[in-house]
Amino acid sequence: MTNHQGSKHYKRNPLEMTICPMNPLHAQEICSWTYESPYHIYNWPAWEHMQKDGIEFGDPVLRAAQYTAVIDNQQQLIGYAQFFPIAGVTRLGLGIIPALCGQGLGPAFTRLIVAEARRRAPENEIDLEVLTWNTRAVRTYEQAGFHIADTYPHPKSDLCSDCYCMVYEPSEHHRG
User: pTM, whole model, 2 decimals?
Assistant: First the structure.
């Protein structure tokens, strides 16, 4: 049996992905996702709680301004992105449905979100934060064109962990 991974015809990630506005049904579905430990810290609160308290995409104005859904060619939700504006920077937040984690989709998923961030604010630097222990995500972001620029305590003190600030650096290999 021949392994064609080196071939330019081999499609490691044949899943087609599209970015679209995040609607309340997408948001509600994201709140139902359950990540296994230690990734469970990325689980969102219940949708009803997020709506009542106006937390993140539970706030319709913030959802429209900063959040998008990522869907496949069957219109199924596979992930989401946040485009958080900071002076001269677009900070990304992103998540993929737990069933697709570890399937090799991450770099293409991340590059799609980077392309949208560049479209929205081409003059901005693009960065993201990731907990230092999350080596799976760090590796994914490096494959998508990010590099570690800084390390500091995570802003949410209850996590008791350091995080990396990773900055996107476009190259011919990562353009997209």
Answer: 0.86
